[in-house]
Amino acid sequence: MHHKYMDKNSKMRHPAQKSLFFAYFCAGKQLAGDEKMALSETLYGKTPEQLAAVCAELGMPRFAAKQLARWLYAKHVEDPMRMSDIAAAHRAKLAERFRPAFTPPARITESADGTKKYLYRTQQGAWIESAYIPDGERATLCVSSQAGCRMGCKFCATGRQGLQHSLTTAEILNQIVSLPERDSLTNVVFMGMGEPLDNLDNLLPALEVLTSAWGFGWSPTRITVSTAGVASRLERFLEATQVHLAVSLHNPFPHERAEIMPVEKAWPIREVVEILRRYDFTHQRRVSFEYIVMSGLNDSPRHIRELCRLLDGIKCRINLIRFHKIPGSPYFSPDDRAMIAFRDALTAKGIHTTIRTSRGEDIQAACGLLSTAQNEAAQF
After folding, report:
1. Has 367 been annotated as catalytic?
2. Which of 288, 292, 280, 270 shows the shortest CA–CA distance to 342?
3. Could you say which of 55, 142, 149, 367 is catalytic?
4. pLDDT-derived band of residue 373, with 50, 70 and 90 as boundaries?
5. Using one digit for the tens of pLDDT, what is the confidence trace for 287-313?
6. Which of 64, 97, 130 is the last residue of a domain?
7. Same domain, residue pair 218 and 362
8. CA spacing 20 to 30 A to 188: which of 176, 241, 243, 251?
9. What range defines the domain where residue 52 resides?
10. For the whole model, what pTM was predicted?
11. What's the CA dihedral at 76, 118, 114, 135 to 10 degrees?
12. How many structural domains does the chain have?
């Protein structure tokens, strides 16, 4: 593997305070002090409705909102001074009012298997990572929705560092727009750092930009959003979008799941599944369940039986994922023979089950390994 440093003078912050996720779960509110810092606005990331509000505020004609959307999302031009069909006086107002959104990666790390990990600095000074995964004619970008995460899953490196802050819509989209391989992308998965549904107010506009005719114009089937199961926001997400959904399951027994996924205590997986039963996944939109297999913990015949009971009647697939070792973790992945046997047992029960290929493990870019804790405490 090798690194490319693009900002060698960047200074790293000290680690953020430990997440108070349990208090958050109990109260159902944002953490005290979370995201109180006033952020300067970006034009990029705004929907036509929001752009129309900007035009009204600055005394611009309403039709200028469509012009702005075309410059931003068809031409990927965010500098108002380059928007030649906007009146010069209005361009000057826009340039004064909004800051640039596009920021290049601070570091690029490449795996032996071709996977690339990109490190970005956020406006608030935290760090996030995304992973580009080429695979033949398919090229997937795994993007982050938050700097850190408050969910605290025991098998995930991101969860260990707690939550620094949620990303803005522009910071979410910047991971795609600034990607050198942007034009080769076939799919985007929100499976990087953070819990996407914990940042729904910025996630939904980003998805709207990606899938609308006035935006990127992508089919929703090119996008998958993963969630640990934030049931209180799941219906809003399902009603507002048509993108694929992936639910982090990892154990069908509530008490066992709660030991590795504290989110179970607030939003039980059975509640999540009952919500999903009310939606149609028999056409283009898919729902899948992610299942990191940990030897002796969640891979027994009784787990297979309970998975079948839990998911009975839902058209879905289960993606089995090898556990990728993180420092100090007591868990480990079964060998290939055991993984195949687990997959075949579920398939025999009528659940379409696959084993996800591990990519980028040598650069800490595989599932569960993204973490910027070291970057927060060090200067590179």
Report:
1. yes
2. 292
3. 367
4. low
5. 999 999 999 999 999 999 999 999 999
6. 97
7. yes
8. 251
9. 48-97
10. 0.87
11. -50
12. 2
